[in-house]
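quick one: cytidine-5'-triphosphate bound model?
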Amino acid sequence: MTSVAGKRIVLGVSGGIAAYKAVEVCRRLMDGGAHVVPVLTKGATRFVGRTTFDALASEPARMSLFDEDGPIPHTALGRNADCVVVAPATARVIGAYAAGISSDLLTATLIATRAPVVICPAMHTEMWEHPAVVDNIATLAGRGVHIVGPESGRLAGGDEGAGRLSSPERIADEVGRILAGGAPGDMAGLSVVVTAGGTREPIDPVRFIANRSSGKQGYAFAEEAACRGAEVTVISTIDRPAPAGARMVRVGTAEEMASAAAAEAGGADVVVMAAAVADFRPAAPAGVKLKRRDGVPAITLEPTPDILASLGSSKPGGQILVGFAAETCDVAANAAAKLRDKGADYIVANDVAADHAGFAHDTNEVLVLASDGQTHQIGLRSKRQVARAVLDLVVAERNARTEARAGSKERQ
Ligand code: CTP
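yep, here:
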């Protein structure tokens, strides 16, 4: 766990069955040396007693805006905190926070604080998928609130589905990481190439065929990798500077992106093909502007190079290749076909027609398919957090490969 030592953490607990796991979150943060101040909602105390937190945390549990004299507790708690964590966060607390409604000490503290906030939702799948909750999570993620989980699995009452609180270990880990500036430095020494944006295929000198890609997800990968210490090259079609510390290669067409990728990817440890590359281009773009008076032009299209497939077929040993799948239906099946056909280690698939996800949004929701057959659902969160979750998988895979190599050398 990245260090939480010496940090003042307000641990908000709201009323869900997963409240009992907040005890373990508290214990882990305390073990890491944090100063933990529990704030319980009335609902939380129906699931877990405040005495438990009184005994474990650095300060007695707080419950009410009015239970003490002296300075107004909601502003004092929020102002003095290095981080506010809510685990579990119910639909009610999430909704109140998103709407700026202060109805108890916890929501008041959330609205009063300027410290980083980590929301760990837990609820039944039907509630988690309700459009109001989806909107509220998107609003919070768009404001920079860190959303951790929920995971899929067994829920209270024996149901299965998305909505399970993330493990206390993961929550404590994320808090440590956020307090460290989100940069664990675990990609130091790695060279990462990221493609970003949609390509433009000229029809004539003023017109082109394009797509809706904003490049935001690609830039989020580049930023996250750079923050984690990687040496990053961004091959981009977007008129936006590279993230601090990253190198930029500007391209326009699929052909230009293919050449840049071929030149840059060979020596890379990780390649992330986040760009939306055109599949077809005008076979013979006009050299001068097409004139209206000449009538509707018949434009013949030809295929562009499939960059990901060609990187996949010439991938150097040890490189991890991450592709994307932009889908509007049958997401899992189409993504599985791309994983198989393009030689990628991971395919990050999203439904680009969904609300709050895909092109131009600040948030995304993806399904990651790995070549070892595992799948990972990454629920709605900011594009930076999606990048973080995917790069966590990449780093874990690299570490596993390094360990396996070391193990096989030892056996020789
Ligand atoms: N890709 C690529 N070169 C292309 C087209 C796509 O490298 N000419 C890459 C994208 O960057 C992405 C992955 O392939 O990482 C999948 O892109 P997507 O547009 O979802 O699928 P396509 O392969 O184009 O297939 P289809 O449009 O039929 O879904």
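The chain is about 35% helix and 25% strand.
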